[in-house]
Amino acid sequence: MFIGLGLACIYYSGPISQAIGRSAWADSYLWGTRNAVILFGFLVMVIWVLFACGVFKSASPMEVQATF
Asked: Is residue 62 part of a domain?
């Protein structure tokens, strides 16, 4: 699900950046708002893969171990 969100952010980075408008911070540090949207989409995909591989533990009751 989140892989699709990341891919959509990357694929539609042009229209998304036009809808958001120019960001001064992104223009000065990331070479443009479109690159910031692409980077966000890539980070969403990487973080989701790390969750799927078990690098980060979720807070679901099924994964919580009893302490007593």
From this structure: no
User: Is 58 domain-assigned?
Assistant: no
Q: How many domains does the chain have?
A: 1
Decide if 60 is inside a domain: no
Tell me the two tokens of residue 47.
């973080």
Q: How many Å apart are CA 40 and CA 36, to the nearest integer? A: 6
pLDDT, average across residues 31-40:
92
What's the predicted TM-score (pTM) here? 0.76
In sequence order, the 6+-apart residues with CB closer than 8 A to the CB of 25 are none
For the chain, the distance separating the N- and C-terminal CA atoms, rounded to the nearest angstrom, is 36
